[in-house]
Amino acid sequence: MSDAIPPIDSLSHSPRILIAGAGDVSDVVHSLPVACCLRDHYPDAHLGWLIGPEVAALVRGHRAIDEVLEVPPGWYRSPSLVRETRKALRQSKFDITIDCQGDLVSALACYLSGARHRIGFTAGHAWDAFAWLNNERVVPVFDHLVDRRLELLTPLRIHHPRVRWDLPIGRQDQLWANQCRSQIRSARLAILNPGADCPSKRWEADRFSATARYLADRYGYRSLAVWTTFEDRLMAEQIVERSEGTVTLAPDTTLMMAAALFQTADLLISSDAGPLHLAVAVGTPAIGLYGPSRPSDRGPYHQVSLRRQTESSSHGFWRSVDNYAMTAIGVEHVCEAIDELHASNQIGFSRAA
């Protein structure tokens, strides 16, 4: 009987909890409210986060996180890296793991940790082949990923949590963003993000340019075209060239510099990509442009989503089709959404310090 697993709600008020979410920017942003709610519920807990180095800045220095365990991309394919990861996880002696992503990487990390209580989604709501690695399985009822991941806290008797992100934006990043914003001689600033992780989720450059001209003519905006990859930059440059002087190319930024810059803006327009969700996390009004992915589960949380065509939402499908669904979104649809946001007073003047 000494080896019996105690009920999860009988643990101490200072449990050691691991959040497994080593995905991209969107994945981490969708999971950050879980960490905030855990900190509220367990002020004395030790909270760790397993994450990839390219997005670790989103949790490093976060008020809710005590320990950041960085794992290299593809670690689960290397026997030696699996052993190293297992050793690091076991040293932290986690009592509980939260499998936010429900895929091989997160489920395996939770299993390797040796935690007695491993919370994840039931089969059908996670990759079926790996759902068994968790022993406290939740059947979600909500659609949006933010709400669904917060449902993983129900075994801990955490209900109706308040959603917030508390991004750890440093003072230097804030100062840089405010200086960048002060150089834009306009009362209103819009961020345009043409980047996406596959062609089927990209909106055309000339449509971004036309939208920027509308923003300038109707509401007096100046726009910044942001980018991360070389391909994104080429598209951002096309937007600038066709904008008739209403768009400026954004400088190269780190992840947290971008978050700070978004915080100074009045509006962000983007496809389903990391910058869209980052903007939501810092409180910037956003319009998400959706083609093959579904705004019902991965749209900008409590913000505006536009989708004109219904396509399969399979992740593999996104990468194998053209952007027909995105081309169904016209400039007029985005301009109408902009008008509605202004009419409802959801957009004010710049919040730059």
TrEMBL record:
GO terms for molecular function: ADP-heptose-lipopolysaccharide heptosyltransferase activity. It comes from the Bacteria. The keyword Heme does not apply. Its EC number is 2.-.-.-. This is Lipopolysaccharide heptosyltransferase 1. GO terms for biological process: lipopolysaccharide core region biosynthetic process. GO terms for cellular component: cytosol. Pfam families: Glyco_transf_9. The keyword Nucleotide-binding does not apply. PANTHER family: LIPOPOLYSACCHARIDE 1,2-N-ACETYLGLUCOSAMINETRANSFERASE-RELATED (PTHR30160:SF1), TETRAACYLDISACCHARIDE 4'-KINASE-RELATED (PTHR30160). InterPro entries: Glyco_trans_9, LPS_LOS_Heptosyltrfase. Keywords: Glycosyltransferase, Transferase.
